[in-house]
Amino acid sequence: VRDADALAADLRARGRRVTPQRQLIHALLAEKPNHPTVESVHEAVLPAMPTVSLRTVYQALHDLEAMDEIRLLQVGNGPLRVDTRPERHSHLRGTKCGRLHDVDVDLSGLVLPAEQQRGFAVEGAEVIFSGRCPMCAGAP
Amino acid sequence: VSTEAAAATEGSADDDGLLRRHGLQVTAQRLAVLRAVSDGPHSTADDIYTDVRAEIGAISRQAVYDALAALTDKGLVRRIQPAGSPARFENRVGDNHHHLICRTCNRMVDVDCAVGDTPCLTAADDAGYEIDEAEVIYWGQCPECVTSSHQKERARQEEDRRD
Question: How far is the alpha carbon of A44 from chain B, nearest alpha carbon, in Å?
Fold first, then answer.
């Protein structure tokens, strides 16, 4: 997540308005631990701006995603979450609880053979690991 | 009974059995959702909702989502959830294949797994998880979007020359 001035310049360049709501959401994302749910972003906005609706938060997040500032992602049937690391990276997902972590994977061995590329210009890959987290595995 | 009608009946009888074997009650909604997923691999939940409505008429979006969740939980349907793109559904569940996605138009195609076993990769630090699946998503641009971005680039250069 970049600083507020860079964001404001980018919003203007894209013909979108720089509103206090958008600036607040952006600032909150910079502070929050990664992968907050959209609902929790909304809850964090409310003390400062009680009239901001969940819909406004979704709209602001979709705009930030279109600007490659964040990505929205979901795990299983779980809630929609915000990923503040916009570059492609791999994740570990808890299938039972919906927890989400960033994870490092050595992708150097992962080369898609030319005959499998189907004419695509392949730029990279990410891996999504899923399974039961230690807490869910230990639960009865 | 025409051959076509017989084939259609047979197809749905197979699906009936499939649902039962997985402990799911057979409902018209689940059958229609299963068929929509099999007819349109990599469809989003909204695509499936549109297809199912066209086939069986009145059904709520929530009922389609619920049916998809039930089919996914039982492993009859696989949900693919790349970051920054809506979830897609497919019924090719028997093998450990992966996906290639166009970052411009979101088109998704299947690619084979070089390893074949599940999970085919390991994480440097698995944080204590019992990992049962490693899903690889390759990103890039599809042939059509590569062509159109080249065309746009040429048009821009053309315009620059005129200025």
Answer: 22
Angle at A75 between CA B45 and CA B44, to 5 degrees: 15
As given in the structure block, the two tokens for residue A108 are: 């150097």
User: A10 — contact with chain B (CB < 8 Å)?
Assistant: no
* The predicted structure's pLDDT at residue B118: 62
End-to-end CA distance of chain B: 69
CB B48 within 8 A of CB B68: yes
Helix residue spans in A14-103 (DSSP H): 20-31, 38-45, 54-66
User: Who has greater pLDDT, B24 or A86?
Assistant: B24
Query: In which element (H, E) is residue A13 found?
Result: helix A4-13
| Contact indicator for B79, B87 with CB cutoff of 8 Å | yes
Around Cβ B113, how many Cβ atoms within 10 Å?
A: 16
- The reported pLDDT for the residue numbered B121 is 75
**Chain A residues touching B124 at Cβ < 8 A:** 103-106
Alpha-carbon gap, residue A66 to A103, rounded angstroms: 24
Mutate to test the interface with A, among B136, B144, B148 (most CBs of A within 10 A): B136
Interface confidence (ipTM) of the complex: 0.77
A87-105 residues labelled b (16+ CB within 10 A) or e (exposed): ebbbbbbbbeebbbbebeb
Look at residues A123, A127, A115 and name the one whose alpha carbon lies nearest to residue B146: A123
Structure-block tokens of residue B17? 């059995």
